Amino acid sequence: MNRLNIGKLPSRLLRKFINKIRIEDEQVVLGPSIGEDVAVMKFGDKLLVAKTDPVTFATDLIGWYAVNINANDIATMGVKPRWFLATILLPEQCSDREAENIFDQILSACSFLGISLVGGHTEITTGFQRPVVVGCMLAEAESQPIIKTSGAQQGDDIVVTKGIAIEGTALLAREAGQALLSSNLSKRKVKRAGNYLFSPGISVLKEALIACSSVVVNSMHDPTEGGLSAGLWEIAYAAQVGILVEEEKIPILPECRDICDKFALNPLGLLASGSLIITLHPSETSKLLAVLDEAGISANIIGKVVEVEKGLKLHSKRGTQELPQFDRDELARFLDMHNAGVGETIVATRRKR
């Protein structure tokens, strides 16, 4: 019996679980599948889009996170998130002020994104050392076809918005800031990295809706745990395609590169919420880049979708090699390397399904 590590469920095990599911309900348009993070059900001439995702790391912004990460997956369908439910599990000895702070964060994030908080559940429970928030986001779509991860097509350009790795860099700066300062990273850079949560920000709702209203998009996916590399592998698996990425075209944010260098981490495998991967026909790409730029959102073409037989490759000045796969997010690996001191304060176990 193998013991599982903290972090994302191994793909082999997740595939095994999913293969046991048999859906006979004809109203289910999109069910569980590797790379597809949202469920879709048909109700008359409308579609109900649903997503659930937990936040289980210790952070002063856990309620705010829960809303944003669930909204992101809905956004990748080209749909505006509408309704949010939250299950809040609080540890014993949690103060009423701490509980109210989480609730206020959820309300604030919902208000900012135009989402209604419509229900949920809250309790104090045993066995927890920190709060856990499990979110459920719902939305309504007018009709099919819907945008799916599996929609990527051979010949598509691969576009990445903003840069990587926004969320992982911010968490490392906010929770391991003292270690970074001790390694001679400037206070200005640590502060700027910690602010990545808000600028450029971890929400992809704006760029997703702009893209879908401006051009024909074949697929969208938000890379989270396992970083950009895992996001690309999930697209390839879902769409049964190959991928060729140009390493020099990947927009690695400056503070991300600096922090990864200090901790010997690979930016391609670092928690990357805040970036959106878009694949589309090359005839649409210049228009997409123009409308995003007009909205103040940077975007870069990083590669192409190719034949499945070509596999997943990373091209650089050093030559062409396999696109790296990460058994665990680089943030989780950081925990293992630093299981004492600052490292143990970061509990990055948000799971992406």
Assign the structural class, choosing from mainly alpha, mainly beta, alpha/beta, alpha+beta, or little secondary structure.
Answer: alpha+beta
Compute the number of strand runs. 13
Give the overall form: globular
| Helix and strand sequence | HEEEHEHEEEHHHHEHEHEHEEEH
User: Quick one: biggest sheet?
Assistant: 7 strands, mixed
CATH superfamily of the largest domain: PurM-like C-terminal domain
Separation, N- and C-terminal Cα atoms: 23 Å
Uncertain runs are 340-353
Report the top-level CATH class of the largest domain.
Answer: Alpha Beta
Structure description:
The structure is a single chain. With 353 residues, this protein is of the alpha+beta class. The chain has 2 domains: 11-141, 2-Layer Sandwich (60s Ribosomal Protein L30, Chain: A), CATH 3.30.1330; 149-334, Alpha-Beta Complex (Phosphoribosyl-aminoimidazole Synthetase, Chain A, domain 2). Helix content is 33%, strand content 23%. The protein has helices spanning 11-18, 62-75, 96-113, 166-175, 177-182, 187-194, 205-214, 227-239, 254-263, 282-294, 330-337, and strands spanning 28-30, 39-43, 46-55, 83-91, 116-125, 132-141, 157-161, 219-221, 242-246, 277-280, 299-306, 312-316, 319-322. Helix 4 (166-175) crosses helix 9 (254-263) and helix 7 packs across helix 10. The chain is globular. The two termini are 23 Å apart.
